[in-house]
Fold each of these.
Amino acid sequence: MTLFSTLLAALGCGLIAGVFFGFSSFVMPALARLGPAQGVRAMQSINVVVLNRWFLGVLLGTALVCCGLALSALGAWAEPGAWVRFAGACLYLAGTISVTSLYHVPRNQALARLPADSPEAERFWPEYVAGWSLWNHVRGASAFVAGALLIFALLGLSGCRGPLRPIAPPGAMTPVEHLSELGIFEGDPAKQVPRPGFVAYDVNASLYADGARKRRFVYVPAGSRIQTSSDRWQLPVGSYLVKTFSFPRDLRDPMLGERLIETRFLVRTEDGFTASTYVWNDAQTDARASRGDLDVPVAWIDERGVRRDQVFHVPSTSQCAACHADRALGFRSRQLDHVAEYADGTHDQIAHFERIGLIDQRPPAHLVLSDPASEAPLAARARSYLDANCSHCHGAGGSAERTDLFWDLEHTTSAELPSCRSTRSIDGRDRVLVPGYPEQSEFLARMRSDNPRVHMPRGPAKLPDPTGIALLSTWVASLPAQRCESD
Ligand code: HEC
Ligand code: HEC
């Protein structure tokens, strides 16, 4: 409906602009050449004939449609392009209709009252032509610009700028080559300021990624909402999940900025999630679609001022499924329930989602992960770390489900821990977890190992996480000591 009325209004504006353009460019100059008596007679005739249903139909019909458009745009202000529609419609009403009724109509009526051969007409004519022409330029130009704005709004409505095009995975028939083509980030893309509609969010316990920082954004198409639940949330078709990895240049000085490495996408389609990644160029001006599986060298300075050189491994897009298995992994009540900083203060993140209409309702009672770097109790931090870094594989539906070794929050209570569970020996340790004895626990040996065949967590991150290993070691040491019987 809006599409049709915008089209109608744009065409009406164009037609009216054309009529007034004719008057400005040749009709008025031609009449001015005739001299007062003939000029006045011709103009009087035009002013009588112009009041016909065709011309008035287009002039006033367009005005009526513009009134409707302006009101509907006000009612849907949040929609992309609403203001363009509003501006176009108002410009026609103010610049064309008001000028016509406040200036031209009274002038024409004054002219109609004068006999063409009278001395008054002779005096009135030059002044009439000059003023009439000037204001005709104004109403013609207004109709023209209004038409242009409405065409612009039309392009948005018909999908040229409105809903995003789904990102074809790299290697597909029509991949979107450059991140900039997607129009997600506004201004300098390296600043990662998303266009309206994209919502920044954060998780309680982030997956360790060789020390990279992450920014996350979610986009849900207008009119749909995320369905919450006590555990995993359901994203509507057309949702975009975006995660950008970066390294600060110098941890001691945030002003030095950061080096963006890759921006990953999961796009929810009818058949599940499409995964893709875009790797940033050195100039940090844009990122290119990549099949991944490449090493990007990064250098940064840590909090002690020591220069760190490492490689960041961008996973192959065929590896995303090993962890994701067609699921969004951070969209869980346990990961999103926390208090965060927003432009207007500190809020509960879920309440924020509710307020901006991102979710259908607050999730029912649920488990919550703790930030492993927070002041939360040791066990909560350690178990949250395991849930966030291991349970996408070692959990229901995960790729390590067949090991029957689960690291989600539900399976790390003292009753469920894999204490003394025997396993393939790694560096002489053959029990997954020995309570009280971190140095004898095989899972910690795997986490410390730089042998990619045994290293855990399996995945693109290659470097052992010293902070995570320290946290888990302290936790295992704090568990009531237990001697495992030999089999
Ligand atoms: C080692 C496991 C692993 C691999 C491999 C992996 N991811 Fe993820 N990903 C996660 C986890 C865990 C989260 C949720 C926690 C977070 O956001 O830090 C996540 C989050 C995301 C998110 C944010 C939305 C969400 O699911 O919560 C996107 C987007 C994403 N991953 C894309 C990708 C893409 C694309 C690939 C492949 C190029 C990929 N991931 C490979 C584990 C993985
Ligand atoms: C990308 C998926 C993935 C992630 C993430 C992952 N694992 Fe594994 N894990 C596996 C697979 C597959 C196996 C079975 C093959 C093997 O033993 O190497 C396994 C095996 C193990 C085993 C031996 C299991 C046994 O049968 O005794 C341990 C212990 C283990 N993982 C610990 C962890 C820990 C701790 C984490 C998190 C810090 C983790 N894993 C994260 C995929 C994963």
Amino acid sequence: MPTNPKTNRTGSRPTSRRAVARQLPHGLTAQQCREMYHKMVQIRHFEDHAAEAYAQAKVGGFLHLYIGEEAVAVGAIAAAREDDHILGHYRDHGYALARGCDVQACMAELFGRETGICHGRGGSMHLADAKRHFWGGHAIVGSHIPIGAGMAYAMQYLEEPLVVLDFFGDGATGNGIFHEGLNMAALWNLPVVFICENNLYGMGATLAEESPVSDMMIKAEGYTMPAVQCDGMDVLSVYGAVQQAAEHCRSGKGPFFVEALTYRFRGHSMADPELYRDKEEVRRWRELDPIPRFGDFLVQHRISSQQELAQVNEEAEAEMLEAVRFADASPWPDPSTAARGVYANPIDPEAAQEALTLAADPAPAAS
Ligand SMILES: Cc1ncc(C[n+]2csc(CCOP(=O)(O)OP(=O)(O)O)c2C)c(N)n1
Ligand SMILES: [Mg+2]
């Protein structure tokens, strides 16, 4: 047998990076995989720093961490078009960063600064970025489910080939508004992917305490909506499920329900002492951490080396340190602008005063 350095012992060529990439699932390229890993790492580091800043009283209001669930936002949003619409609940840092929102502007928003992505008016629960078609960040559980259906109706009406990804938790499926949203979406055949993050808890309530069924996808059946369950700790599983769902919606077949089985490693919010679950359960789920798991996949498929993964982590850390510095140094919003952005067409204060005066002192009735 010739001793060609380009051949292995049995004479066949060693698999090249390109050849391995061709075998990737769901038609993904190696570059897309690297980007998904990068996004998950970015979110993890962002939230570690957000938690630290919260403990230093730099972040006002509530702070709900997405740590452990990164594969859901990243896999789902990577499977959508860049201009598809995104809505989510208050655990929203992952959606924003997965969609490519500016890291510094997101951090400054948590710090309540004028340079924040919503000029410091929204805080952690209300990140939004209209130019990236990311419509928030909703604090009222389930409130954005019919809003997502409404946006999907607009896409259908305007004949835009866009779909809506609407993320919510298992807890939201007990709200009336969830059923109204799914009902309307099914009746009107709307292009919306409902993505339920089943993380086993709604605040301190376990799944068994909050829902008569443990599989949330069963709830879609009542609306004749196709549904799949995916492994929310595996970015590839989420990608595949949402790719299928988005294709279905885009081809005019109506809504689709995706249930991602996931787990939050931290409490409901930073104010949660976590008395409702034991540490052993958390430890077992931490073993499924989506980031090292996908890192192993990248190394095994020779998409990235261990050194490259370490570099991604180092760069994300440096990026977040810079984001915290930026947020700290940013100015507070001017209090006189507090009402700006509350209404799309702000009420003219003089006209409002005139209307109030007239209402208080009506003209005498004609005799
Ligand atoms: C309409 C409404 N009811 C109650 C609350 C208080 N609340 C905030 S988060 C939450 C739990 C929601 O759990 P889930 O939907 O599973 O999302 P997760 O926090 O697990 O991501 C509740 C009850 C609220 N914000 N809105
Ligand atoms: Mg939940």
